[in-house]
Amino acid sequence: GAADGYPPYNIEQIGDDALRITLAVAGFTMADLTITIEDNQLMIRGKQTDDAQRVYLHRGIAARQFQRSFVLAEGIEVRGAWLDNGLLHVDLVRPPVEARVRTVPIRGPEADGPG
């Protein structure tokens, strides 16, 4: 699990309404990683499988699995993700709130109104 702090990660602001989460996932391939959004949680999971064909004389790098979750604030959307040099980047964006302006007509006393 992620209780041991694995994998380490950064969260950086890359724009007024944009964030990037970067996880250090050395040794993981794209096939080992999944990213899902469950309700308001971004779930990043990694699972490496052992290669039964390998014969180790020393094994200091174990196949690992992890699960990291990040709570997404209301309106945050995942723009995309990519794996580069052992770093998994996930870009998040908060779309600008569209100003919803509606004009309400004002009627005079000659119009039929309530009461």
Q: Tell me, what's the shape? A: rod-shaped
The description of the largest β-sheet is: 4 strands, antiparallel
Q: Which strand order spans the largest sheet, edge to edge or round the barrel?
A: 1-2-7-6
Report how far apart the termini are. 66 Å
Encode the helix/strand succession as letters: EEEEEEE
Q: What class, by secondary structure content?
A: mainly beta
* Helix amount: under 10%
Give the total of beta strands: 7
| Low-confidence region ranges | none
Strand percentage, roughly?
35-45%
How many helical stretches? 0
What Rg is obtained from the alpha carbons, in whole angstroms? 24 Å
Indicate the mean pLDDT: 88
Give an overview of the whole structure.
The protein is an all-beta fold and 115 residues long. 0% of the residues lie in helices and 43% in strands. It has strands at residues 9-15, 18-24, 33-38, 41-47, 65-71, 77-84, 87-93. A hairpin with a 2-residue loop joins β1 (9-15) and β2. The relative contact order is 0.25. The mean pLDDT is 88.
Provide the fold topology.
Elements: E1 9-15, E2 18-24, E3 33-38, E4 41-47, E5 65-71, E6 77-84, E7 87-93
Write a short abstract of this structure.
The chain has strands at 9-15, 18-24, 33-38, 41-47, 65-71, 77-84, 87-93. The chain has 115 residues and is mainly beta.
Label this structure with key terms.
115 residues, mainly beta, 4-stranded antiparallel β-sheet, 0% helix
